[in-house]
Structures are given as structure tokens and as C-alpha cells.
Write a sequence for this structure.
């Protein structure tokens, strides 16, 4: 069954879940099966037993699948094209929220009076091709969820 955490007390190690069918279930921290602690509003999947939630897991949202026509998702297309055409400036990394690698690429290109832009441009070209050839699910997992910084 799926639902949302209404409250959780670290002191008592107990909480309350509101299921999608509007029923409330109590739970203890020993039934929590995720690495991060439960927080208010978190979506969960659990087994109900007499108004007690057991085997509670954090619900993981599925990755976006792009448009119904199979076209790449917006971030993938924008990051891929920016990597190919503006790769030396790290614009594609900024689009993906990878600030540190983006700043590195930008500074190498600018502080070397443009000489560093050549290898940064080659890296951008390679990354752009990689971005555009990955499936939407792979792209989302690798670059949005796992935040892989290079290649």
C-alpha cells in the first residue's frame, strides 16, 4: 500500500502514515527500511496489518520518459546540444546542476586565454554525443540521480 508520512518522532521512534485510501497507520522506526530517516510528507510503500504499517520503504519516483513520441526529455536535449556547441564553457554542466565541473570547465577555458578551450570543447563534444545517445532512463539515472560529473 502507498501513502505519506504525517509525522515521525525521533524521541519515541514512532510515526503515523496516511495511506492513499485515507486510512491512518502507526509505525515504529524498526519497520523503516530506507537509509535516510523518515520525514513528514515523504511518500512511502508499506504493508498494512491491523492499522500498523510494516516493511516501510521510501517510494521512488520513476524517471521521466520523455514525450509520448519518444523524443528526448528537455534536460537531455538541452544538455546534449549545449555540450556540443558550448561545451568549452561548461554550460551543459550548469544545466544538469553540476556546478563544480561546470566552473572547472569555464575557468580552464577563460584563464588559459582560450588555449584550454580546445580540450574543454573536445570533452564537451564527447559528452554531448554520450548524452544524446543514452536512453532517457539511463540519462536520468546517471546524470540527474547519481550526478555523475564527467563523461
Amino acid at each position: 500500500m502507498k501513502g505519506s508520512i504525517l509525522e515521525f518522532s525521533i524521541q519515541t521512534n514512532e510515526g503515523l502514515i496516511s495511506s492513499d485510501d485515507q486510512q491512518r497507520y502507526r509505525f515504529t522506526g524498526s519497520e523503516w527500511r530506507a537509509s535516510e530517516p523518515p520525514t513528514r510528507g515523504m511518500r512511502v510503500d508499506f504493508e498494512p496489518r491491523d492499522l500498523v504499517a510494516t516493511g516501510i520503504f521510501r517510494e521512488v519516483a520513476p524517471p521521466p520518459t520523455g514525450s509520448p513520441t519518444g523524443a528526448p526529455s528537455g534536460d537531455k536535449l538541452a544538455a546534449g546540444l549545449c555540450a556540443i556547441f558550448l561545451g568549452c564553457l561548461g554550460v551543459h554542466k550548469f544545466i544538469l546542476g553540476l556546478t563544480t565541473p561546470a566552473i572547472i570547465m569555464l575557468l580552464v577555458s577563460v584563464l588559459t586565454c582560450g588555449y584550454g578551450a580546445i580540450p574543454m570543447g573536445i570533452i564537451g563534444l564527447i559528452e554531448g554525443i554520450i548524452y544524446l545517445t543514452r536512453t532517457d532512463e539511463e540519462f536520468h539515472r546517471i546524470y540527474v540521480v547519481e550526478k555523475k560529473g564527467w563523461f
Summary: Residues 67-72 have pLDDT under 50 and may be disordered. The chain is about 40% helix and 20% strand.
